[in-house]
Amino acid sequence: MKIIQVKKFGDPGTMALEDVPMLRPGPREILVRVKAAGVNPVDTYIRSGTYATKPDLPYTPGFDAGGIVEAAGPKVKGFRKGARVYCSGSLTGTYAEFTLCKSTQVHLIPNHINFSQAAGVYVPYATAYRALFQKAHAKKGNILLVHGASGGVGIASVQFGRALGMYVIGTASTDRGKALVKESGAQYILDHHHPAYLEEIMKITGGKGVDIILEMLANVNLNNDLTLLARGGRVVVIGSRGKIEIDPRLAMSKDGVILGMSLMNVLDKDLAAIHAVIVRGLKNGTLKPVVGKEIPLKDAAQAHIEIMKPGSYGKIVLIP
Length: 320
Prior knowledge:
about 325 residues, alpha/beta, Quinone Oxidoreductase, Chain A, domain 1, Rossmann fold, 2 domains, seven-stranded mixed sheet, six-stranded parallel sheet, globular
């Protein structure tokens, strides 16, 4: 079987396509034939060696996948061979033709969700749900700003916000991205490169400010976010690529809260609740993963370059 393997931390060129022996599932494990593997910004941080935790080398990147159950261990129930599934992490990495998962990491998908969409479920939708509901405690009627709404997590956040009955403002930097944010349900769509977009947000809220901000690039936007908060507002930092200086008085004046989050920290009981909601949303059509680009598995290095470019649009997936 073919896998992408990282033998040393560094730039995208450290990833190489390798042939390795076929995997076999243990008693409580499931072998999934990967039809599409999701690419996330966190994959690039781990590969570069700059992430807080580092896997043992060599390793295969990837947490997300859509595929088919190839085989299941004797103690696994509820998954027949050929079942269509999405993976929420794996034991062996998802940038591969096959990946080995714990049975709790495999979830059935409805027939109207294709494999590339399934590869865009776990990290984007679990992150969005965790940020909105388990961290920021979102409520119906809240005003939500999704700062960088055209990427995988951003689109998931917009869809969850609208499903709850929130007023959603989404930002993007390209016409194509703004159109996607609108299609996903945001009532207001702004260009975060426009010099007056912060003033426009305050006009939209009648000067009140926003209740919740989901922030994908905190090293650029966090101080501005604090100026946009309503009293008691919350900023959830989902992504950051460096340091930023902020004025703490901006948070003090609004009783504002800055919350950090990482999917790596979620407890199993909270993950179970997240996946129950995701599966239900996929079935009833509330949640609709958007695939922006499909790239061959062998070109994983190019996918890591693409995902770090500005102007994100949906999910990037690798096709074995």
